[in-house]
Design goal:
By secondary structure, the protein is α/β, with parallel strands linked by helices. The chain contains 8 helices and 7 strands; from the N terminus they run H-E-E-H-E-H-E-H-E-H-E-H-E-H-H. About 40% of the residues lie in helices and about 15% in strands. It has a 7-stranded mixed beta sheet with strand order 1-7-6-2-5-3-4, sandwiched between helices. Helix 3 links the parallel strand 3 and strand 4. Helix 1 crosses helix 2 and helix 5 packs across helix 7.
Length: about 260
Amino acid sequence: MKFIDFCMTFYYLLAQKFLLTLFRSFYGLKPQGVRGKNWDGGLIIASNHQSFIDPIVIGSAAPRELYYFAKEEIFSWPVIGFLARSFNAFPVKREAFDLEAIRAANRVLRSGKALVVFIEGTRSRTGELLPPKNGVGLLAYQNRVDVLPAYVHGTFRLRRSLLHYPGLIVAFGERMRIADYEYLGLPKKDLYNRIAQDAMAQIRRLKADVLRRFHTFGYSASQEAKNRKGGNIEHGTRGEKSNRSGSGGETGVEPARR
């Protein structure tokens, strides 16, 4: 490992520990499904997307270094651009299919690293799960890497998670072996869609399990609905049309919005 790479990894891990402590102290962050899993090798973390803060919440909860997409504009900002690079973000154009971003993602995965991909292709404007895009399946199959679904809870209305139960939760599902899909004999587009649909099915189950457990302790799905009522104030979307389609296109390669 080059010295600069060692320094960047050390900086990332140091920041990760700091943020994990911060989120646990003020937002009650609860990583779930971390133990007993194989986190090694090239891996896609396929997650829902509710807030700009999702990437660092997921990064704080995961037990390994992660990489992210980020919109290209922020890399020209002096401080934010430096922080984005420090946290392993790389630029992607939001207006069109970005072949260079796909190539960068391929390099990350083929070098045995882990990449966060927001499976819905855009941030949810209501807090509800959106239909998955095929980008997760495309990246996973082309690079022959497994997929680990994840569900992020509590970031949609971030202020309501501050010092309030249940706070932030990142629940990881079961690792999907991409080798199991190679023998299905499906056309590539259908195969990509099958991988994405299977990952989203796990995310839905993770969400249901999280809400069910909170209901047991006095936090119900009706309270979750109340938290969503009126739109996402933190993102200034009150009154806007819900669930507008994002710019990720069919592949759903969504930049991490920091």
